[in-house]
Amino acid sequence: LNDFLLLAFADTRELQLLHFSLFLGIYLAALLGNGLIITAVACDHHLHIPMYFFLLNLSLLDLGSISTTVPKSIANSLRNTRAISYSGCAAQIFLFAFFMSAEYSLLTVMAYDRYVAICKPLHYGTLMGSRACVKAAAAAWASGFLNALLHTANTFSMPLCQGNVVDQFFCEIPQILKLSCSDSYLREVGVIAISACLFFGCFVFIVLSYVQIFSAVLRIPSEQGRHKAFSMCLPHLAVVSLFISTGMFAYLKPPSLSSPALDLVVTVLYSVVPPTANPLIYSMRNKELKDALKK
């Protein structure tokens, strides 16, 4: 097997060029938004605090995830082809799994950061020192790398005997599993089950963190204090909600709801929308970030 055939967005040349223009616009918006956040946080010393350090890492991961899937789709539409090489497909699966896993781990770390900032403000400097932040970010990246390596090695160690047509606009693990021989996919299902347990553990940690955060915020006597605390947490909560809801719907929706058109829309929602929307969500009501961007 030398290559795979990805799902085409359209059959006619006019619609292919429309897809090219639309995806190019989305990709450039994601590059601009995340690039501005990275530049602002790196260059403004007022933003050299844990919250913005993690935000910089989030923007790097968003850039990585959208750059893994969208440019190939844009190039294929422009060149009127569906092909992706075997190595290119493996690279897409590894990189996409890496960036998405690392992002989810980082969002869990960011939930802990918000919890310490609001529930244990006197210990914040000790618990979230620069060394602790670097270790936490490194752990998120490393966990993403190990998870992606495990899934990619396992997926491509299976014999594929169901053709080479991938029913998606990029290579992803469930689509490759559909091409595997009868029972050989069960091993990958076991690996996915382990990942699902870790995912659920992080999800429970995020939920418990926000239960503690909201109970602490509601005990703040002044309205101004409550407003400030909520404004610190709401962008992160919005990003987490978008990331988890689109991902869960993509992978956990009942088979009866499955159709090629719906699967495509859902995949765009969880793989393309979050990296583009995250910079907007974080900068919309953030005065410090807006001031840094103006500078």
TrEMBL record:
<dbReference type="InterPro" id="IPR050516">
    <property type="entry name" value="Olfactory_GPCR"/>
</dbReference>
<feature type="domain" description="G-protein coupled receptors family 1 profile">
    <location>
        <begin position="33"/>
        <end position="282"/>
    </location>
</feature>
<keyword id="KW-0675">Receptor</keyword>
<feature type="transmembrane region" description="Helical">
    <location>
        <begin position="49"/>
        <end position="70"/>
    </location>
</feature>
<protein>
    <recommendedName>
        <fullName>Olfactory receptor</fullName>
    </recommendedName>
</protein>
<dbReference type="InterPro" id="IPR000276">
    <property type="entry name" value="GPCR_Rhodpsn"/>
</dbReference>
<feature type="transmembrane region" description="Helical">
    <location>
        <begin position="229"/>
        <end position="252"/>
    </location>
</feature>
<feature type="transmembrane region" description="Helical">
    <location>
        <begin position="90"/>
        <end position="112"/>
    </location>
</feature>
<feature type="transmembrane region" description="Helical">
    <location>
        <begin position="20"/>
        <end position="42"/>
    </location>
</feature>
<keyword id="KW-0716">Sensory transduction</keyword>
<feature type="transmembrane region" description="Helical">
    <location>
        <begin position="192"/>
        <end position="217"/>
    </location>
</feature>
<keyword id="KW-0552">Olfaction</keyword>
<keyword id="KW-0812">Transmembrane</keyword>
<keyword id="KW-1003">Cell membrane</keyword>
<keyword id="KW-0472">Membrane</keyword>
<dbReference type="Pfam" id="PF13853">
    <property type="entry name" value="7tm_4"/>
</dbReference>
<keyword id="KW-0807">Transducer</keyword>
<comment type="similarity">
    <text>Belongs to the G-protein coupled receptor 1 family.</text>
</comment>
<keyword id="KW-0297">G-protein coupled receptor</keyword>
<dbReference type="InterPro" id="IPR017452">
    <property type="entry name" value="GPCR_Rhodpsn_7TM"/>
</dbReference>
<dbReference type="InterPro" id="IPR000725">
    <property type="entry name" value="Olfact_rcpt"/>
</dbReference>
<feature type="transmembrane region" description="Helical">
    <location>
        <begin position="264"/>
        <end position="284"/>
    </location>
</feature>
<keyword id="KW-1133">Transmembrane helix</keyword>
